[in-house]
């Protein structure tokens, strides 16, 4: 997502790979519920016209933060997650919120939505858990072969690890996260009671621009190899990704709809996410299409149609998405399996830029599909 604005620049560097290599410096029907926690949320609502600032997002503290040790093949990854809940009694519906996949992916994307929905909950007793992807956000970032299957395995394992069968699970995901969840649900690996796909995507920056023929796949592999190397990889990553100018440009060009919402403090907070050891591995896979859950629009539509009559699905499209990404979202407007299609302001991160607006649509969806009395 956030790497799209410089995808062509990186791709052109892949053609000089030999030179770069010389650098040395560088879930049967099951329902789920999350473990109980407690939080008192403020009654102040968010302004629809402007996004929550970085400070406001951070001020909404989760009641519980933790790391889950995910063991996958020979790798052990400390996965960061946080829980939010009103103080309440009785049965609760549980929402798992999953950030978009990008070089600056973070649980902070969903905090404003979690705050707003919990304040709206009324007689619907809600709890929210937000989790970072392996290799992104505040999770650890080992060098491993990340791909869509790895990320799908993570989704399934995480849900099974921290949930029980006493209550319902709802999943809200942004970008590729939403599509990976839908793919897992279509396979029957997870069975959430409802899914909300916010600005859903399925193609990484380079494949959506340059395609997927064999010659392109060879070049993507070459580029991916460069980004993963200890020398040239860090040099390229630092030059094109891990710097405040590049991040500011990405957000202003296609991630946020309103450039004025991209403040210096916000850019600095996202820049810090790109500076951790191992931070380039998942972006290298995402950029070159390895994290794409499908390979075509037809496959994308088939995922949603496979849940028709089984799982309510809300698709939240945006007014300001990049042309190609918007076309894929619009293809879901009349698609089988999509229960409701809405459009809101924003671009690729509407839930972060306009959290209260997105929360309103998500809450309406809950009202229409469950017993909700606001």
TrEMBL record:
GO cellular component, one term: chloroplast
InterPro entries linked: AB_hydrolase_fold
SUPFAM superfamilies: alpha/beta-Hydrolases
Signal sequence extent: 1-18
Record keywords: Signal
Protein name as it appears in the record: AB hydrolase-1 domain-containing protein
Originating species: Gossypium raimondii
Lineage per the UniProt record: Eukaryota, Viridiplantae, Streptophyta, Embryophyta, Tracheophyta
């Amino acid at each position: 997502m956030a790497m799209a604005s410089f995808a062509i620049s990186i791709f052109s560097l892949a053609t000089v790979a030999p030179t770069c290599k010389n650098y040395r410096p560088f879930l049967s029907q099951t329902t789920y519920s999350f473990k109980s926690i407690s939080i008192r949320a403020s009654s102040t609502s968010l302004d629809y016209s402007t996004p929550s600032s970085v400070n406001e997002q951070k001020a909404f503290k989760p009641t519980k933060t933790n790391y889950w040790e995910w063991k996958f093949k020979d790798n052990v990854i400390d996965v960061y997650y946080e829980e939010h809940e009103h103080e309440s009694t009785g049965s609760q519906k549980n929402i798992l919120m999953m950030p978009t996949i990008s070089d600056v992916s973070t649980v902070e994307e969903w905090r404003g939505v979690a705050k707003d929905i919990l304040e709206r909950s009324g007689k619907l007793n809600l709890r929210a858990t937000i989790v970072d992807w392996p290799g992104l956000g505040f999770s650890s970032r080992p060098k491993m072969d990340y791909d869509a299957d790895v990320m799908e395995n993570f989704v399934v394992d995480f849900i099974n690890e921290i949930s029980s069968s006493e209550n319902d699970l709802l999943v809200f995901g942004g970008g590729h996260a939403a599509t990976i969840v839908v793919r897992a649900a279509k396979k029957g690996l997870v069975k959430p009671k409802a899914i909300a796909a916010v600005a859903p995507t399925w193609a990484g920056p380079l494949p959506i621009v340059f395609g997927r023929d064999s010659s392109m796949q060879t070049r993507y592999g070459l580029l991916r190899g460069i980004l993963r190397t200890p020398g040239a990889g860090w040099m390229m990553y630092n030059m094109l990704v891990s710097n405040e100018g590049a991040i500011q440009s990405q957000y202003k060009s296609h991630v946020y709809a309103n450039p004025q919402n991209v403040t210096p403090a916000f850019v600095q907070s996202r820049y810090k996410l790109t500076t951790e050891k191992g931070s380039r591995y998942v972006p290298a896979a995402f950029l070159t299409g390895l994290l794409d859950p499908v390979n075509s629009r037809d496959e994308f539509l088939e995922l949603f149609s496979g849940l028709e009559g089984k799982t309510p699905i809300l698709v939240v499209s945006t007014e300001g998405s990049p042309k190609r990404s918007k076309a894929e979202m619009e293809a879901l407007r009349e698609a089988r399996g999509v229960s409701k299609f809405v459009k809101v302001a924003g671009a690729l991160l509407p839930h972060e830029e306009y959290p209260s607006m997105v929360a309103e649509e998500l809450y309406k969806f809950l009202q229409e599909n469950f017993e909700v009395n606001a």
